[in-house]
Design goal:
Length: about 240
Amino acid sequence: MSQARFDADVAGLASLAEPTRRALYLYVRSQRTAVSRDEAAAGVGVPRHKAKFHLDKLANDGLLEVEYARRTGRQGPGAGRPAKLYRRAAGELAVTLPERRYELAGQLMASAISDARSEGQPVARTLGRAARERGHGLASLALRQAGYNPAPAALLAATRQVLDQEGYQTQDDSAGITLANCPFQALAVEHREVICGMNQAIMEGLLERLVRLRLTAISRPVTGQCCVRLAPASDHGA
């Protein structure tokens, strides 16, 4: 998750801490169509000017979307100005600390199951392939961020930034990179072999495209952390 996205989600959650604002949000969310300020004010029993303030704040924080329409059905001169209407924003709001990426795990698994059915392959094999392709995509992001022909230090910094955005919380260790957070922690508790294998394949796919880093993905299960560590290639098998 990017810092901007994290800040926006936190702001949205903080916005709902105010009781009147939260009541207005819940009212708008429960309606099948967009509602006006008057309707929202009447729905929660607050003055119109108070509803206007909080509805606009919810819109600014990305929790509501705004549209304009004439409710009378009249058109042309004399029809009056379109009313400002509010509806729930299409996006989802969630902040988890440490960051988790269960939607990504679901996408990779759904893709793997679909491929396994169509190709007659074991799901474990197609999941590994899907995860490896995810790693390739992360490597492409790191290369774009690092710029043309980057120095190893710049490439490493860009790679860590990409992995941090994925929720891995990279940390320097004595040699290599520790992934201090597992983005799929709850799944790993119940299905450790599957999730650790998926993480391993993601990192292997990443490093296949970033050979200049001279790192390898090794299994190192540690409670509360990702089960994979990025170690110098010379440490493989040590």
